[in-house]
Amino acid sequence: MTTFTSVLNPGTKQASEILSSFYIMLGVAAFIFAIVTGLTAYAVIKFRRRKGQAPKQFNENVRLEVLWIAIPTLIVSGLFVVAVWVMWEVNPSILGKKPDLTVVAHQWWWELHYSPSGVTAANEIHLPVGQKLLIRFKSADVIHTFWVPSFGQKIDVIPGHPNHLWLTIEHPGLYLGRCNSFCGLGHAHMGIMVVAQSPEDFNAWLAHQQQPAPPPSTDQAKKGFQVFINKNCGICHMTGIGPDLMHVGSRETLAAGTLSNTPANMAKWLKDPQAIKMGVKMPNNGLTTDQITYLTAYLEGLK
Amino acid sequence: MNNETSASKTAESILDVLEYKGLLSWISSVDHKQIGIMYFVTSLLFLLVGVSEAMVMRTQLIKPNNHLLSPVTYNQVFSMHGTTMVFLAVMPLLIGFMIYFVPLMIGARDMAFPRMNALGYWLYLMGGLLLYFSFFTGDTLHMGWSAYAPLTETNYSMNKYMIGTGVDYWIIGILLTGAGSIMSSINILATVAFLRTPDMKLNLVPLFVWMSAANAVLILLAVPALNVALVMLFIDRHLHGFFFNPVAGGEPLLWEHYFWFFGHPEVYILILPGFGIISEVIPVFSQKPIFGYAFLAVATIAIAFLSFGVWAHHMFATGMDRTVYYVFALASMLIAIPTGVKIFNWIATMWGGSIKFETAMMFAVAFIMQFTIGGLSGVAFATVPIDWALTHTYFVVAHFHYTLLGGTLFTVMAGFYYWYPKITGRMLSEMLGKIQFWLMVIGFNGTFFILFFAGLEGMPRRVYTYRNLPYLANINLISSLSAYVLALGILLFFINLVVSLKKGKLAGDNPWDGWTLEWATTSPPPPHNFDRIPPVRSLRPLLDLKRERAGAGALDFYEGENG
User: Fold this and answer.
1) Is the separation of the CB atoms in A172 and A202 below 8 Å?
2) What is the dotted CATH code of the domain comprising A13-90?
3) Which of the listed residues A215, B419, B485, B561 has the most CB atoms within 10 Å of its CB?
4) What topology does CATH give the domain A101-210?
5) Dihedral angle sign, alpha carbons of residues A241, A245, A246, A251
6) How far is B217 from chain A (nearest CA, A)?
7) Percent of chain B at pLDDT above 70?
8) Which residues, numbered 48 to 67 in chain A, qualify as contacts with chain B under a Cβ-Cβ cut-off of 8 Å?
9) What is the pTM of this model?
């Protein structure tokens, strides 16, 4: 699967339009910089101090001043038109449309609610390509920013101020992003992964998410389920304080992109979450090695 | 020149000035020159601290997935780097230049309120020390220099890794330095308004003084907004207020508005005196009068005025109403016009001149080009959709370092090489200066130009470690290595400052053939500044004096009637 990580590699219609406006700006900037550098370089070489030189003491030319006020005024007017145009293209009014996905940002993970299916998931965002999607953002605590470079627009996620983004993803693939506003100790470990799929694949994923995960089948997994109950993991993980774990075994990463999801990493995480993601709400639960093995088997079985 | 005033009784070096001997003479001083020097020394030391913090950050970021520093330490370092550079290093450096040179350039004996001048300095020093004292409490500011709510509220700033005292020390420290800068700004305004030598009409005021006065207005109107917000935050933290805390219905966006209502004028506060320095250095080393004096002065006022109408462009990603975007995008773009006017006028000043490349002039020329890059990338951020794509990333880091380091710090360097002889009576070493210049140009551009690409390739600001995405490892490696070169250049500057104080060539009154009044007195100036103030009939009073002495027609290299 193609991985998208760069602003220069747009994956949505909106990102392509923003990138075009960036290239227009880059062209204008290069042109102006070339003029300034060219004139400076010429002056610096041509008018170096030489013996017997007597520079003319001119110090005013209103025509020139008008010229270099008028031309930049025209240029920024043009840029303003470009800005307004692209703003409308990228971010049209909502007009009562219901969001396809609501993302709730937490310190330091992403809670996902799909509508109308009602599916709840965490951190790994699955989206269909080719559809104009409206995504809504809320914060559960501090200010975060949802930023996937290849999606173009980023949006601050502010407590008390629901925000939204329009996305028309054009290419299936893996889109990597991160929280982009400093949000505390775990800020560097608040990754975003978007899996853009064909509508069929997406619907299959959604249908799978609607089913409960299969009950634990192996002995170890059954014991792991008991650990999960006894250690009261559900107090956070079934109430939205921590990520929903219904299908955690099927996800690519753990702890919002901090670790790839392997049994070894899961065990490492369960042993001491603070050592991996300092400040995270999940405490060190003092699990024994056996308990960790069982719990890992149970969680990795939640496909 | 007027050598008859620098009789044998005057000192040749700052170290020999009788009135400046002994620690007590400095602590108890109300002399604007001594206070100016204290600003220089203090802010340069803070600059050194800020540079060290930058080096710690660049070392941490030299490779992806680096865990040398814990997030606790790294967050403190980047927050203190920003705070130190803005409030304790660059702003007071510029205030130092203003306090030292504004009275001299307008032929005044001292500032309008000498005691308040001293109070301003001591408040600044104490604020800075308190801020750094917070390290000894085990906690400093750790949420970035902009200190966004609600992270600064007690419920988010206290946990098992942080005791939360850092925010309180930051509030009090910044409040003190802020009060100090407001005092300085009132003082500058009163000095420029009332203490000009009688024949210096407003159209004969040197541009550095114009820009210092505009700067004082900015400080006076912008800093109180921050002070108010700091007090509100303090109420939130200690008196159970809820201004910014959403937990009880507070509004975190309100902090952003307050902060940037101060913060955006602040970035012009950090550049206008630099523009002033450039407007003095370029004409002198080009042997031509400044081009478009009136346009430069008006452009300065335009920038100062517009700077109060652009703060929300720091908040383009917060999802505001569309009309708000239009207004702030347009206002932000308009600022490019007066800034462009300045750039072109400086180039026109060099045009047809006789340019001597002393270190000061080299810094001025590099400033023009680097600041242009900083300004153009700023216009990109005024273009709302581009801001949506790139704000909060390393593209921003590159942009504002091009304006504040490639811009302001380069003007400060030009200022020191130009005025150090006046301040101390001795020249800075030109050889060391030129080595320093090239180290800084190469180091600076190597560090920051490539960071534009880091932002484009998906690197967010304020992360202690980052994933190994394509290109990021190489970009950061080049940036970090260049940063060491830059630091070496800055270190050389400090060596030059110290060594030249005793070993530098004696400067004499006017080593650069300058034209403004500060060159009419001795180097260093006597405590009372002037024995006699030459008449001011043009922007270049000392040139008039020279012409008069030589007799009309006997000018060595100056022709023409203007100026």
Assistant:
1) no
2) 1.10.287.90
3) B419
4) Immunoglobulin-like (2.60.40)
5) positive
6) 25
7) 96
8) 48-50, 53-61, 64-65
9) 0.95
